[in-house]
Amino acid sequence: MIGTSRKGRRITISLALASAFFALAGTSFGGDLTPASEPGVTSSYRLEDLYDRLDTGAAGTPSTQTEPSAAPPPEGTQHTIDEIMGAAPSVDDTNGATASDVADGKTFWGLTTGEWGPQTGTATGGGGCVQALVPATGQTTCYDASGNTIACSGTGQDGDLQEGLGWPNPRFTDNTDGTVTDNLTGLIWLKNANCWGLVDWETALSNANGLADGQCGLGDGSAAGDWHLPNKNELSSLIHGGYYYPALPDTAGTGQWTSDDPFTGVVSSGYWSSTSDASYAYYAWGVTLYYGYLNCDDKTNTNCVWPVRDGQ
Question: Which of 4, 93, 187, 303 minimizes the number of CB atoms within 10 Å of its CB?
Answer without folding.
Answer: 4
